[in-house]
Each structure stands twice: as structure tokens, then as C-alpha cells.
């Protein structure tokens, strides 16, 4: 769960009436059907860390086709 609120610090003197207090609940992320991935506090409202190596991610990106899928549809 995470909380987002109005800006603070140097922005505190601005008109912040348009801001709302917002709570978010996130389900646990899974790396497989049997092994739960518990995300750390810094990952909750940032970019989650992936369970693959940079080399595996690069190989996945390189394996993508040159033509975007939406362009293939039009052909």
C-alpha cells in the first residue's frame, strides 16, 4: 500500500487545493505460480526490479521483429 499526497517543501506555499490524499493497494507480484515476489519499499511506487538478467532482457529485445505489430496488421 502506498500514500500520495499534496506537494511539500518549497511547493507548500502554492495553491494545492486540487490535490487529494490517495491510497493505492497493490497485489503481490509473482515470478512464478508458486514463488511470490515480495517487492521492496523503494519498488512500490517506482520501477519494480525484474527477475531476469540484463543479458536475458537484451536478448528478448533483440528477438523482436523489425516491423511494429500495428504496421504488420495494415499490410
UniProtKB/TrEMBL annotation:
<dbReference type="GO" id="GO:0005737">
    <property type="term" value="C:cytoplasm"/>
</dbReference>
<dbReference type="GO" id="GO:0008108">
    <property type="term" value="F:UDP-glucose:hexose-1-phosphate uridylyltransferase activity"/>
</dbReference>
<dbReference type="Pfam" id="PF02744">
    <property type="entry name" value="GalP_UDP_tr_C"/>
</dbReference>
<feature type="domain" description="Galactose-1-phosphate uridyl transferase C-terminal">
    <location>
        <begin position="1"/>
        <end position="72"/>
    </location>
</feature>
<dbReference type="GO" id="GO:0033499">
    <property type="term" value="P:galactose catabolic process via UDP-galactose, Leloir pathway"/>
</dbReference>
<protein>
    <recommendedName>
        <fullName>Galactose-1-phosphate uridyl transferase C-terminal domain-containing protein</fullName>
    </recommendedName>
</protein>
<dbReference type="GO" id="GO:0008270">
    <property type="term" value="F:zinc ion binding"/>
</dbReference>
<dbReference type="InterPro" id="IPR005850">
    <property type="entry name" value="GalP_Utransf_C"/>
</dbReference>
<dbReference type="InterPro" id="IPR001937">
    <property type="entry name" value="GalP_UDPtransf1"/>
</dbReference>
<dbReference type="InterPro" id="IPR036265">
    <property type="entry name" value="HIT-like_sf"/>
</dbReference>
Amino acid at each position: 500500500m502506498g500514500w500520495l499526497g499534496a506537494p511539500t517543501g518549497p511547493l507548500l506555499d502554492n495553491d494545492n487545493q486540487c490535490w487529494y490524499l490517495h491510497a493505492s493497494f497493490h497485489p503481490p507480484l509473482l515470478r512464478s505460480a508458486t514463488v511470490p515476489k515480495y517487492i521492496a519499499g523503494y519498488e512500490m511506487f517506482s520501477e519494480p526490479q525484474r527477475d531476469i538478467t540484463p543479458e536475458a532482457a537484451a536478448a528478448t529485445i533483440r528477438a523482436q521483429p523489425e516491423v511494429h505489430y500495428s504496421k504488420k496488421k495494415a499490410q
